TrEMBL record, chain A:
Its main location: cytoplasm. It comes from Coemansia aciculifera. This is Eukaryotic translation initiation factor 3 subunit K. Component of the eukaryotic translation initiation factor 3 (eIF-3) complex, which is involved in protein synthesis of a specialized repertoire of mRNAs and, together with other initiation factors, stimulates binding of mRNA and methionyl-tRNAi to the 40S ribosome. The eIF-3 complex specifically targets and initiates translation of a subset of mRNAs involved in cell proliferation. The keyword Mitochondrion does not apply. Component of the eukaryotic translation initiation factor 3 (eIF-3) complex.
TrEMBL record, chain B:
It comes from the Eukaryota. The lineage of its organism: Eukaryota, Fungi, Fungi incertae sedis, Zoopagomycota, Kickxellomycotina. It is found in: Cytoplasm. One of its GO terms (biological process) is formation of cytoplasmic translation initiation complex. One of its GO terms (molecular function) is translation initiation factor activity. One of its GO terms (cellular component) is eukaryotic 43S preinitiation complex. It comes from Coemansia aciculifera. This is Eukaryotic translation initiation factor 3 subunit L. Component of the eukaryotic translation initiation factor 3 (eIF-3) complex, which is involved in protein synthesis of a specialized repertoire of mRNAs and, together with other initiation factors, stimulates binding of mRNA and methionyl-tRNAi to the 40S ribosome. The eIF-3 complex specifically targets and initiates translation of a subset of mRNAs involved in cell proliferation. Residues 312-498 form the PCI domain.
Length: 232, 554
């Protein structure tokens, strides 16, 4: 299974941004505006296969690192939230490396870090509870303004479930993706899962059997022997 | 013997320029009061104090630089300079540049290069003051101005080792300055004032500017790309890039940039910078200077490690460590010493990578690792807080010195980029630790109930299920497939253990590596064949009546 790498140029990246990233222009502080606009467009796009341009976001974070007076916490929050649901788990950390302690003390960013903790430990129930905490004083959720966040997240969780489980109780799936029974049944049908009463059977995986990695002898290794054999 | 050639006025003028110091200098406080006569006497005394051997050395160096004899320069630089440093200047600095000026007839370019060596020596043996740091930066500006901003390419030719050392030292002094600057509690009031006043000295932008300009001027990226595609590099090289000095400086600047990006925490950009440098090619330009070769792999491996691509990091480290251990005898002592230090750091990083994501490594490396870090590896695999302590210890020993790109806020708290990077890395590592611990248990069974396993691990079944999911996620990493883009790769399973959860039962499957006969047989068959050939030749010699030559033991 190969997931498109975060680092190959995505087809949705416009030329001017690409030029910016590959040139010395990426250090020019006035380009933060361009990159912030691009981020806004990414956030507005709900399609999760085409709405995450990690390299551009990292370039923006780097500009903030060099020009801390231009730092915008809201922008950082959105970049981190996008990285959270990216298919590649290392993306979030890569963004973190370009920040500093000070930035991480900001309330919404700290909350995102905590949420990420639960997500990484696969404590999905806790995650949903914390994210949509009814007692939260903030009016906006910490992932506000990002189209398709919930769906992207569910996709991620489902991928993990399919990888790990062969059979799983329906109730567990409901808890993990924070949907009611009907929605889960719909999902099951979409993905071709067999629902058998309260238990869902996922399609059998081919990898789960003991295999012996046998040796692979390359032809080049035999050339010396063969040529010697020929001489005799 | 050079003394008769110096010109009085010129010489005195030179002293003034060099003595023009910043507010802090106590050396020539009464510069206005001392008259020319005394300065001259001082200068003469200074020149006299230079030992004869050193004077001849400087003479040779000057002559060779002017005539462009690179081979002789290599001898001067790699052999004589370290020997003389050891002999005469082990605890002191080389003669002041103004005295050397007399010996070389004020050759500006020579003096710039001499000063570079002079400051480099101070940095390595003595403790550089703020004054020295500022002056050294100015000297670098002079040097790079001459190389980059003259009307045409300079005629200067230097050996590759020297060029690499210039770039390497430039970045080292930059990093040293940043660390020095951020240790606010040790800085005096006047130093802080000086720093604030001269904020353009050793600024991140200037350093980056130099590196990028060198790369652009030499068109090195175009050259490398042309070479990769099988075309002719000389066509795209341009006026500057065609000269070896510029080409090598451009190339070394690429490696320098990788280093700077890693120091700033931008690992993806670091790997992207190497996009046209072929990492597996044994004839690539970086192999010409050993320190450069080691540097490239160290930073690549480190970047992969921080990105969570432990398999790729392991591969990079193992590659360079085998290279270093195999070629130790072919290089000079100081190069080997420098490489060994980096190698030690890489072993520590390798220990971390291998403990977090167990893979098979080459026999020799594995043996050395076991010998040195066996204890640490066990502690990491057992998990828990102790594991994190061990990882921190190894990490802090081996990581590059991180810097912040801006001058610190002089009134506020000290910011430690080192600690921050370590903590962020530890978050990843903490999760990755799930892999070795779970793996050691799962290895023992083919099926196991969740309850039983949770009993062993002393955790709730629900929590265990979560951990199993994490394990599944963590055992897939992106692995570089050998292309030119270091950042690309495929998601592949990185452990040999796989499982599936059915309700509350875990079904485990382990893939084993079968016994490998072929390599052993081939190697020995070739050995026997060689032996047979030697014996046959011996026989032929005896028949032909030739005297017996002692054969080397096979």
């Amino acid at each position: 299974m190969s997931i498109p790498s975060s680092f190959v140029r995505p087809t949705t990246r416009p030329d001017e941004i690409h030029r910016l990233l590959t040139d010395v222009e990426r250090y020019n502080p006035s380009n933060t505006v361009l990159l912030e606009d691009y981020l806004a467009r990414q956030c507005a796009n709900p399609d999760s296969t085409s709405n995450h341009d990690l390299m551009a976001n990292l370039a923006l974070l780097k500009l903030y690192q060099f020009n801390p007076e231009m730092l915008d916490h809201d922008v950082i929050r959105r970049i981190l939230a996008k990285a959270l649901i990216s298919a590649i788990p290392a993306d979030f950390n890569l963004c973190l490396y370009l920040l500093t302690d000070e930035v991480c003390k900001d309330a919404s960013i700290a909350k995102l870090l905590a949420l990420r903790e639960s997500l990484e430990r696969a404590q999905f129930v806790k995650f949903w509870r914390d994210m949509y905490d009814p007692e939260d004083e903030e009016e906006e959720s910490v992932v506000d303004g990002i189209a398709g966040f919930d769906n992207g997240l569910r996709k991620l969780i489902l991928a993990e479930i399919t990888a790990t489980y062969q059979k799983i109780p329906l109730a567990s799936v409901q808890d993990m993706v924070n949907l009611d029974e009907e929605a889960v049944l719909r999902l099951a049908k979409e993905n071709g899962w067999a629902v058998d009463g309260p238990v869902i059977s996922l399609p059998a995986k081919s990898e789960v059997k003991a295999s012996v990695i046998s040796e692979n002898v390359k032809f080049e290794q035999l050339t010396k022997m063969l040529s010697a054999a020929n001489d005799i | 013997m050079y003394q008769e050639t110096y010109d009085d006025e010129e010489f005195v003028g030179n002293i003034d320029v060099v003595a023009d110091s910043y507010a802090n200098a106590d050396e020539i406080e009464d510069a206005g009061d001392i008259d020319d006569e005394e300065l001259l006497l001082q200068a003469q005394a200074g020149v006299q104090s230079i030992p004869e051997q050193v004077r001849t050395f400087l003479g040779y160096l000057h002559r060779n630089l002017q005539s462009g004899k690179v081979n002789d320069l290599t001898y001067n630089y790699e052999m004589q300079f370290p020997r003389l440093s050891e002999k005469y200047y082990a605890k002191a600095s080389w003669p002041e540049p103004q005295y050397v000026a007399a010996l070389v007839n004020d050759d500006g370019l020579f003096l710039i290069l001499y000063r570079e060596l002079y400051y480099r020596h101070i940095y390595s043996r003595l403790h550089p003051s703020l004054e020295i740091r500022f002056r050294s930066f100015e000297n670098y500006c002079d040097l790079f101005n001459h190389i980059l901003n003259s009307d045409g390419p300079t005629d200067l030719e230097l050996p590759n080792q020297w060029l690499w050392d210039i770039v390497d030292e430039f970045i080292y002094q930059f990093q040293s300055f940043c660390t020095h600057r951020s240790r606010l509690n040790k800085r005096s009031e006047e130093e802080i004032a000086l720093l604030k006043e001269n904020s353009q000295v050793w600024s991140t932008y200037s350093v980056l500017n130099v590196l990028y300009s060198l790369i652009q001027k030499s068109n090195i990226t175009e050259q490398l790309r042309a070479q990769q595609q099988g075309g002719d590099a000389a066509q795209v090289a341009g006026e500057f890039g065609g000269r070896l000095l510029y080409k090598m400086l451009g190339y070394f600047s690429i490696v320098g940039l990788v280093r700077v990006h890693c120091m700033l925490g931008d690992y993806t950009l670091a790997l992207q910078t190497l996009e046209n440098v072929e990492l597996g090619n044994s004839r690539a330009l970086y192999t010409r200077v050993m320190a450069c070769h080691v540097s490239v792999y160290y930073y690549v491996g480190f970047a992969y490690l921080m990105m969570g691509r432990y398999a790729d990091a392991t591969q990079a480290f193992v590659h360079i460590l085998t290279f270093v251990s195999r070629t130790k005898q072919y290089h000079q002592r100081q190069q080997v010493d420098a490489a060994s230090k980096k190698a030690e750091q890489m072993y520590a990083l390798l220990a971390i990578a291998v403990s977090l994501s167990p893979v098979r490594v080459d026999e020799n490396i594995h043996a050395y690792l076991r010998e040195k870090y066996a204890d640490q590896q066990h502690r990491i695999q057992r998990g828990g807080e102790d594991a994190l302590d061990v990882i921190s210890e190894l990490y802090l020993f081996a990581c590059p010195k991180f810097i912040t790109p801006n001058p610190p806020n002089y009134e506020a708290e000290v910011v430690e980029p080192q600690a921050y990077q370590l903590r962020t890395f530890l978050r990843e590592a903490r999760l990755q630790l799930v892999v070795p611990t779970l793996r050691s248990f799962l290895k023992l069974y083919t099926t196991m109930g969740v309850d039983r396993l949770s009993g062993f691990l002393e955790m709730e079944p629900a929590e265990l299920k979560n951990q199993l999911m994490v394990y599944k996620q963590r055992c897939r990493q992106v692995k570089w497939d050998g292309g030119s883009d270091l950042l690309s790769g495929e998601l592949v399973p990185s452990t040999d253990l796989d499982f599936a959860l059915e309700m509350d039962m875990i079904f485990i499957a382990e893939s084993r590596v079968g016994r490998r006969y072929a390599d052993w047989f081939i190697r020995n068959a070739n050995k026997v064949q060689d032996l047979v050939v030697v014996l046959e030749n011996r026989q032929k010699d005896t028949i032909a009546g030739k005297p017996k030559v002692d054969a080397v033991a096979a």
